[in-house]
Write a structure and sequence with these properties.
single chain; 234 residues; alpha/beta; six-stranded parallel beta sheet; 10 helices; 6 strands; 45% helix
Length: 234
Amino acid sequence: MKKILVVGPALPEWSDMRAIAKSLHFLSEHYELDFIDPLRDLNHHTDKLSFFSEWQRKIESLLSKYDAFFGFSLGGVVLQQCFDQLEKPNKPIVLFSVPSFSDKLISERLGKVISLIKEKKITPAISLLNQFVFYPYDLPSEDLALADPESAALRLSSGLQFVLETDSRLILQRTKLNYLHLLGAESQLVNSNNVIVSPSSQLVIVPQAGMRVLQDNLMHCTDSIVKFLKGRLS
């Protein structure tokens, strides 16, 4: 069975990945999926350079173990920074709501979230981020209680800051990778203004979807993903 590595987004707690994992269940009949936390080795001394350098080493070590790679938001930014390594073995890549760079809109909105975290207002910060992430649908009614607020604050502030500080345009302009990128038509963060289309990529604008393209319009995403993987991994 072919194996897919899924690099998740910047989440306050990795347990929040369950909803995304559930939305990929349609692939489990034909593919084995492994999920990895992009922030699992994060500490207070981790800066952008060391973060991406370490991930380039990780991807290099994982290339022979996986047949395809998926990246959500920060996880997709990680994969974009590793495109040179992924190009030679020509691994299929699927990106979900991944900015190519940070424009004024995403900088202002994520900047407000980071500012709240720095003010030690982690719960209001998550609430504000959720407003952007879940749009155009209702926010979840679940409790925002955190098992480890200090860890959640570090994870979220660092992860979002890495996204804001990273510009992948030069990489995307020169890559020859044929990758699939799914982007929500209603997204309040990542949109066509901060995503460039690589000459070799396939960009799919998912209708009636925001940042959570799979959860918002699974049927539309399923068709695109299945067709893409079937063409590359059959």
